[in-house]
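Quick entry between incubations.
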Amino acid sequence: MAPITVFQARKIITMDPNRPEATHVAVRDGRILAVGGADCADQWGPVQHDHSLADAVLMPGMVEGHAHMMAGAMWKFAYAGYHDRMDPQGKWWRGKPDIATVVSDLTDYAQGLPEDQPLIGWGLDPIFFTGERLSRAHLDQISATRPIAIMFSNFHLMCVNSAALALAGYDHTTNVEGVVKGPDGAPTGELQEMAAMFPVMRRLGMDFRGLSQTEDAIESYGAVCMRAGVTTVTDLYSQMEDSDLAVLQAVTGRSSYPARLVPVLGVAGADPETAAARAQALARQGTDKLRLGAVKLMTDGSIQGWTARVKWPGYVGGQPNGIWNMAPDEIRRMVATMQAAGVQMHIHVNGDEASEVAIDAIEEAARHSPWAGARHVLQHCQMMGPDQFARCAELGICTNIFANHIWYFGDQHAALTIGEDRAQRMDGLRAALDAGVHAAIHSDAPVTPLGPLFTAWCAVNRQTMSGRVLGAAQCVSVAEALHAVTLGAAYTLKMDGEVGSIEAGKFADFAILGEDPLAVPAQALKDVPVLGTVLGGTVHLA
Amino acid sequence: MSALPRLPLTVIGGYLGAGKTTLLNRLLSEPHGQKIMVMVNDFGAINIDAALIERADGDTLSLTNGCVCCTMGNDLFMALGDALDRRPRPDHLVIEASGIADPAKIAMAARAEPDMAYGGIAVVVDGENWPKLADDPLIGAQMRGQVQVADVLLVSKTGGALAPNLAVRLAALSRAPLLDLADLPQVAPVLLGGMAPDGVQGGLQGVAADHPAYVGWAHEGAERLERPALEALLAARPAGIYRLKGHVLSPDGALEVHVVGPTIDIKPAQSDSTRVVAIGLASQIDRETIAAWWANAAA
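Done. Structure below.
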């Protein structure tokens, strides 16, 4: 008989209504054997007591239902973002509130680089800067000889220095859309969209494929999760090839690997029948720590990029309606094929016209191929109102809501994108729960940092960067928010029978916290320290 | 890097069911003499004569004529990098954009990348359904956008004649040549230029000689033009030339020129003479007109 370990904690938040709180949890074979007091597992045989977590608060390991593996490996590059941010090793990197700080911090960073290596940065978001735009003149202050490229947080733009421009052959004669030029006719260093960025990326070896699937990328993603209290994490547009499977299985299979990974296969542009067959084949290759078989569809773009498809009255600045990355016809065909094949779908929908098309497609597919347990998930759901949530409830569609947007972009949405009225109802977890929809909330890391306690804080407080509360009627309680980042998200991955709460039979996956998130003021929820995680009974300390 | 000839890229746009795949099947089967690499999203509709297929492994289909067809996977630009790094480098790269995509976002890479040459954007217009699609409240803007960025518009399913109202709508959006696919004896001259990869020296291989529907013109000389003068000359080219390419000497070193429909792309090059080839439809232009226009270069 395998040994029984009984972990003692200051408090255990179980998310199990039958026993909401406990002080001890017993683990055998990586699973929860019993929950309660010190004697909770005595009826199962001799136990070993582990007091190492006695001062900590345990809650179910959190579940991130929408993030991307590159959130780990991005840290191979220099962080240039506005907000303070922690790397996979737990080191905090200072946010850069202005161009001067970008230049000074990256100058320091460059001193640690070999002479012949380019300086590559990421995470810059000029939406937060006032005044002049970042240009090659600023980056040339860091180095005139070392090529420098700073990727913006939206991955659609970058700024490079003169040395990088020269490598790509960009000069005053260049006539390429996306190579921005100044009044003097010379490139400013800003490059817009992939075509213009491609020659620089190719010559600087900026390999985004290498930020996923490699052993290093999988490992650092696990480290990021552990420091955020996450034990189950998605890679929500996996571009894995069949040849990547062995690496994924090997790395996640190590007992030192601290997370259960759920790669969701991107299928935009693919032939529906082929993609469905591939998903079904992958589903059979899963393990306890690697779950496969779901797919991700695209629809529209992003609201802050004005590429989301929004219903009337459109964008406040009069921008044209956004773009489809999969045509509605393709979406309908893909949805019908996946529904018929029994493949669960995660569907990207930012604007309310996109969510409507997705809901319509699922409704139509369900008439032809009824499937009560499909649990398809709309992802982002940023502009959905009560009417669309009601339809999701009718159809059994789950929603994973982009709560972090309220803090990061809420002010911009009210002022610049969809206007005050619709910004108030954005990312409406309250409306979803009231409609009876199974709901989760997410970070979309690396778009915003992985951190479910922060994400929960956003849903509870709905505070923006300027300090205002955006749509107080959509605030939820701390308990509801914690449910969304545990059982709520687990439900969307069809893993609620295995993770998401601390109760007998489930995997022994816990978040180790320094304080009780249910006891601190709601405003302090984001500041509750994460000390590490327990995965399958193995402790991983930050 | 400069030792290898630039890789020309042609992008095929157009909505689902317009006939992009049919066009690619035609292209791969024609005797164009080029080693083309075709990248598609999936093989679903690719239907090559089995006799042409040399071998099929995984995501690549190798043809007996030296062409390959492969799927590009999720990351188009990574696939683009892989195509550039392929040895031997293909003579021409053709990418099938997805039905809703803006083909210019892909084709612009050929103008940006020093190792690539601009081969243009060919948009296949569904002669039956396009007007309805262009008015669709959800996708109409993107359908019209594809036509706006096209360098050549290829109309399918015309049933023998281009509907005048369709032609008017397309002309209002685009200055690109409008061709009925059913009228084209070969598609390679339109999509690739039809010239041998090494330009003039290989001659206007096959195309102009074999197909009276096309006019080919080739010129070699010692003209030397400043870049602004070259740009002005190209801007004044006679209507009916839908492809022109070559090297032109200039005081600051040679320039490589690619003209496709309304688009002009110029990059630095190495050459010891001015060599230019052009192609048009015989019904629209003759060799003398082209020669007379180019004579201005020496003036």
